[in-house]
Design goal:
The protein is α+β, with helices and mostly antiparallel strands. The chain contains three helices and eight strands; from the N terminus they run ββαββααββββ. It is elongated.
């Protein structure tokens, strides 16, 4: 005999104040709290950045590795290089007053995902032994927002 349980969704926002131009911020504990508060037992947690110069990634929280990631991004899209996006005398789309030159940040963001979708089981995010969820700032310091959504079974 099949047991019917209640389906549930919860949408929320995590606010992050970054302190550095490039920064990896571990969100895992905040996301676990969000899942617990939602009452989700089995389902999906979606994490999505709301900014074009940020990313969401899953990787290991090891300080030297995080330094390697920053170096890799800097090598892939150096800050000192010329980017057409930064030439506001020519660019006519999406130009803001006082906009800093951030073409390198947009190019770095292109290499990383804007969201991740993770499974939830027994009320916890399913992650491997060393996996953590990071918000990646590529154009800081700034105030940032991350959208989080749980969908699934509360078991109630």
């Amino acid at each position: 005999m099949e047991t019917l349980t209640a389906a549930s969704t919860r949408l929320g926002t995590i606010h992050v104040a970054t302190a550095n131009p490039t920064q990896f911020i571990d969100l895992t504990d905040r996301l676990e709290r969000f899942v617990a508060e939602s009452g989700l037992r089995t389902g999906i947690l979606n994490i999505q950045t709301l900014h074009t110069t940020t990313a969401i990634v899953v990787n290991e929280h090891e300080p030297l590795l995080l330094m390697d990631f920053k170096a890799l991004l800097a090598a892939a899209a150096p800050a000192g290089q010329r980017y057409r996006h930064d030439d506001t005398a020519v660019r006519t789309v999406n130009v803001s007053d006082g906009e800093p030159p951030n073409g390198h940040s947009h190019c770095r963001a292109l290499l990383l995902p804007t969201s991740v979708c993770l499974n939830v089981s027994a009320g916890h995010i399913l992650l491997g032994r060393w996996q953590r969820v990071f918000f990646v700032e590529l154009d800081g310091p700034r105030e940032r927002q991350i959208s989080v959504l749980t969908v699934g079974d509360t078991g109630r």
